[in-house]
Amino acid sequence: MAALIPAGGDASGSQTRNGLLALLKRVNSEGRKAAERLLFEDGGGLLCAARISHLQDELIRAVHDFALHHVFGSPNLSSGERMAICAVGGYGRGTLAPGSDIDLLFLLPYKQTALGEQVAEYLLYLLWDLGLKVGHATRSVEECVRLSAEDFTIRTALLERRLICGEEALFTDLGRRFDAEVTAGTGRAFIAAKLAERDVRHRKTGDTRYLVEPNVKEGKGGLRDLHTLFWIAKDHYRVNTREELVAAGIFSRREARLFEKAEDFLWAVRCHMHFLTGKPEERLSFDLQREIASRLGYNTHPGLTDVERFMKHYFLIAKDVGDLTGIFCAALEEENAKDAPGFRGFVRSFRRRTRQIPGTLAFLIDNNRITVANRNVFTDDPVNLLRLFKLAAAHDLEYHPDALKLVRRSLRLVDGALRANPEANSLFLDVLTDRNNPELHLRRMNEAGVLGRFIPEFGKIVSMMQFNMYHSYTVDEHLLRTVAGMSRLEHGELASELPMTSGFVETIRDRVPLYVALLLHDIAKGRPEDHSVAGAAIAEELCPRLGLDERETELVAWLVQEHLVLSMTAQQRDLTDRKTIRDFAERVQTLDRLKLLTILTVCDIRAVGPGVWNNWKGQLIRTLYAETELLLTGGYSESSRRQRADFARRELAERLKDWPEERRAARVEQHYDNYMLTVPLDDQVRHAEFIDAADEKGQSLATVARTDKFRGVTEITVLAPDHPRLLSLIAGSCAAAGANIADAQIFTMTDGRALDIVTITRDFAEDADELRRADRIAKTVEALLGGREAIPALLARRRPTRSTQSFAVAPRVEVRNDLSNRLTVVEVEGLDRPGLLADLTGAISDLSLDIRSAHITTFGEKVVDVFYVTDLLGLKIIGEGRAERIRRRLLAVFDSPEGELSSATAKPSPVAFGIVS
């Protein structure tokens, strides 16, 4: 580097600095490229992080020495000018991700000197010019000690200090005083602070380690959890390596290897993410998952794609991190119990003294937690591995970390003999059907590894993700949340939100088969065959082992095989079509099965993820249940349907009783039966007020928007003269405004107008902000329908939306005449994109088809849109040739990645539709 100084020149000049900066940039770039290349070659995440940290060390040392010797010419420092440059925080561990911040401490003996300030400033400006993010502090040893004692964040950063260059004696002095004056005697407060900080962090990132787009650094089961364990270990046990944790008896050698394996994997993922994105990206989003899976060398296997195999491995690692946390907490608790000194400690220990659980010698209660009486309880009787959870459920106990630690170390005892043991199976069934909190005990059983070994088929879906935007959790997490939903129904917690389903719970006699079906309904996910059919086969084999009789086994298998049929029928079929109800009733056959399937369906949908369940889906399910119940009980007839629609009209009239008679009658009679039977009464009242206000103003076209924060959606209602292209234009308006349509309902009124209700996904957390956005979209709809805007201009201003191009959904179009006696059903499935609904409905209009009803369902990145259509004469579509033309035309919509929205401009103007006067 001395060669950078021009002959007879000034080392502090701009020419020298520019040359030095260019050299540093080249070295830094080449070093990072080498680290990325080696990461591909050896796959070592920790090695990669250490290499980047070492590269950073070398750059800092070189600049420091150059500045000291050449720029400022002060190789011989006075005692007051001594300075140590230390790495702290994550950098202090000797590991850096490509985009990580560099945390530096300029450590001084006393106060800052002019030379020290100049050297620090020279170094920092060069690092910033390199494009690095540098956090720094300049403090004396005294300041470091004082601030560390006051602030746990500073204490944590200094806990992982490391000398890069400079005065070693100064660094040693800091270490001595830090241990003596900061950490001594304050370990418990530090542990409590770090664990509380961890809990807050978990809540911010979703409080589950099974989110399908996890945060690798901050999320539950991520790197920060491992760092928290090591911070506590360094502070409390004075250890610096994993080997020392083994020597201290905290981890076994196997657990220490698990720690290293988890840390190495998470570092590899994180480094790949930073290299790939060129920024410190910590969220493993869908669009990154496929690329990272490829970089890590995962391949597709039957039933699981490469990305699904990678993410399953990720969640298994996250589960290992949770296991290690439990083991570590057990060791801490045991250590604290031993350290309780003197009389006070004796009294505390006496008050916490364990007591025996009646009827067993193997388990004790310690501070309202179940624990083991000795370390041989599972080897003496492996059934105790199930009995532990049964007793905890029966006595409403949490689990002592010691007990779970011993369970994890005894999993080899869960073998074929234990699985065949009738008592063990009976105990498991008791846990599953616990009246208090079955989810808690199943979750602990799953986290400890017992559930996946006792039911090997369940073990196959542990930590398995489904690579789509619909499911928010892994398969096992989803199943546990489904069971939790049933428990909440039994406790009456959802009575106001789900009155019909909550009422069923009080009357069902097949409670045990229902719980088994809830746990098993997705157990065959990840297999090449249909998971519903494969799951039914698993149920037929497993249920007798669990102690269910032949009738109960048949019921569970049926529920598993048919667990999707109710939701699919409710959301994707016309519930006012008599054949829909007849076909569904033939599959259900009995009222008891209908109730059980309804409960399972509601629990299943609500456990998919936040915002998936909404009132509209609830209303569809209630309507389907009511129609099917009538048929199964012999009460189904056209007159009954009319009676129910008339009853709905009387209810609406009662709610509008304060209106003038003529206006009230007009509003009550303006809708066909399908509207009265499917739309909730509160919404009917709201729609009546909206239509009445439009008529008062003489508006032929009107819109209104409302937000639903609880459902996480926004609803836009459009009143306009009916026309075949109306839905296409509304959908095009929403797409051009950047709004993603999640649902749409189409109702033709008796006066020739249409009432279309479009549900879009929410963008803003605050209602006021979201309502302003919704009003803008509604005005866009009015402008397009009124002829004041054109699609191309709207598209030019379209705001980018989240891409679904990371996903692959093969398009499918079916044209069926067997689902309705009067109408042809066109079912379209494919990858969602902005404007897709507009393109599909526009294509249907181009085919001279009249849409009588549409059922729009979005499953994340996949849409299933179902249209009930006729030809322009009101007849079914007859002839395979015409059906094939429909299929080809709609499949062609998916071939255009940019969509066909602009084609709408080639159609007659909205004025010709009679939309504007």
Automatic annotation (TrEMBL):
Cofactor: Mg(2+)
Pfam families: ACT (PF01842), GlnD_UR_UTase (PF08335), HD (PF01966), NTP_transf_2 (PF01909)
Domain HD: 475-597
Keywords: Hydrolase, Magnesium, Multifunctional enzyme, Nucleotidyltransferase, Repeat, Transferase
Any one GO BP annotation for this protein: regulation of nitrogen utilization
GO molecular function: [protein-PII] uridylyltransferase activity; phosphoric diester hydrolase activity
Annotated catalysed reactions: [protein-PII]-uridylyl-L-tyrosine + H2O = [protein-PII]-L-tyrosine + UMP + H(+); [protein-PII]-L-tyrosine + UTP = [protein-PII]-uridylyl-L-tyrosine + diphosphate
Control of this protein's activity: Uridylyltransferase (UTase) activity is inhibited by glutamine, while glutamine activates uridylyl-removing (UR) activity.
Enzyme Commission code: 2.7.7.59, 3.1.4.-
Keyword Signal carried by entry: no
Source organism superkingdom: Bacteria
Domain ACT, residue spans: 715-797, 825-904
Ranges for region Uridylyltransferase: 1-358
Matching Gene3D superfamilies: 3.30.70.260, Beta Polymerase, domain 2, cca-adding enzyme, domain 2
Domain-related comment: Has four distinct domains: an N-terminal nucleotidyltransferase (NT) domain responsible for UTase activity, a central HD domain that encodes UR activity, and two C-terminal ACT domains that seem to have a role in glutamine sensing.
Biological role stated in the UniProt entry: Modifies, by uridylylation and deuridylylation, the PII regulatory proteins (GlnB and homologs), in response to the nitrogen status of the cell that GlnD senses through the glutamine level. Under low glutamine levels, catalyzes the conversion of the PII proteins and UTP to PII-UMP and PPi, while under higher glutamine levels, GlnD hydrolyzes PII-UMP to PII and UMP (deuridylylation). Thus, controls uridylylation state and activity of the PII proteins, and plays an important role in the regulation of nitrogen metabolism.
Family: Belongs to the GlnD family.
HAMAP family registered for this protein in UniProt: PII_uridylyl_transf (MF_00277)
Matching PANTHER family: BIFUNCTIONAL URIDYLYLTRANSFERASE/URIDYLYL-REMOVING ENZYME, BIFUNCTIONAL URIDYLYLTRANSFERASE_URIDYLYL-REMOVING ENZYME
Name of the molecule in the record: Bifunctional uridylyltransferase/uridylyl-removing enzyme
Organism (species): Aureimonas ureilytica
